[in-house]
Amino acid sequence: MTLWSVASVLTLAFIFWLNAVITASPYIVYLSGLKKQSERKNSVVALLLLLASLLYFFLKVGSFAAEGFVGMIDTTYMQFIWTGPVGLFIQLQVTIAVAWIIYSIVKVTSIQWMLYVVAVGLMGWSFLSIGHGSDVVWWGKLALLIHLLVAWVWFGSLNSLRKLATSVSLNKAKIIMERFGGHMSVAVPILLIAGVVMYRSATGQWIPELPLTSYDTVLLAKLVFVALILLVAARHKLTLVPQLNSESAAKRLKQSITAEMVLAVTIFILASALSSAFSPG
After folding, report:
1. Are 8 and 59 in contact (CB under 8 A)?
2. Can you state the angle between helices 3-32 and 170-203, rounded to 10 degrees?
3. Are the beta carbons of 3 and 254 closer than 8 angstroms?
C-alpha cells in the first residue's frame, strides 16, 4: 500500500466512525433515558464528517493523479473522481453532514426522525457505492447493510457508554449497561451471520482457501480483532456489569470500554482497507 492508500484508508475509517456515532445517537438517548445530546456535539460531528469527506475526496484525487500534493487539486482528475463511485460517496456523505446539522438545530421531533432516517439511508447507499460492495448480488448488498447497521449502533454507542459508566448513579449505569448487553446479545449474532454472507457474495466461498489472498489475510486479521472485542464485551456482560456496585468498579468498566473502543477503531480501519484497498478477486 502507498502512503496515499494508507491516508485514504484512515480517513475512510474516521468517516465510518462518524457514521456510527450518528447512527447510534438516538439509540443512546433511548437506552439511557436521558435528554437528547447537545446541539453542539451533533454539529461538531457533522462538521467533522464534512471535512473528512472532503479530505477523502482530495486524497483519492492525489492517489489517482500520482503527482504529489499538486495532483490533489488537478481539475481534470477532480472531475473524473467526482463523477465516479467515489464522487457519489462523497456527495452522499456531505448530504448526511448537512442533514445532521439541520437535525441538531430543529426542535420538532417528527422532523428530526425524518432527517435521521434519511441520514442512515444515505449512509447505507454511500457504502454500497464504493468498493466490491457495489458489484455483489442483492442479497450480498442486504447483508452488507445489516452488517453496517449493527456495527454502527454497537461501536457508535461505546464512547457514550464509557462516559455514562461514571457520570450517572451506579444503579442507573448498571441498568443502562444491562439493557445494552441484552440488545447486543441479539444483534451481534446477526452481525456475524451477515459478515459470513458478505464474504460468500464477494468471493463465492464460505471460508478462505489456500493460498490466501491479500484480501483474505486482512480479513483474517479483522476476525482476530472481532474475536478480541467479543471477549471484552463478554467480560462486560458476565463480570464487570454484574459487579457494578462501587466507584472503583465503575472506573474499571470505563477503562475496559476504552479498550473496547480501541479494538473497534482497529476493526474500522481493517474494514476500510477491505472495502477500498484490497480486492476479493
Report:
1. yes
2. 140
3. no
In terms of DSSP H, where are the helices of 37-107?
39-65, 75-82, 85-105
Measured distance CA(74)–CA(89) in Å, rounded: 20
pLDDT tens string 108-118: 889 999 999 99
Q: What pLDDT sits at residue 281?
A: 63
Element holding 192 (H helix, E strand): helix 170-203
Q: Show the cell assigned to 149.
A: 447497521
Residues 63 and 5 sit within 8 Å (Cβ to Cβ): yes
**For residue 152, pLDDT beyond 90:** yes
**Cross-strand pairs, 67:** 69
- State yes or no: pLDDT of 36 exceeds 70: no
> How many Å from the N-terminal Cα to the C-terminal Cα in the chain?
17
pTM above 0.70, yes or no: yes
**Cell numbers representing residue 57 in the block:** 475526496
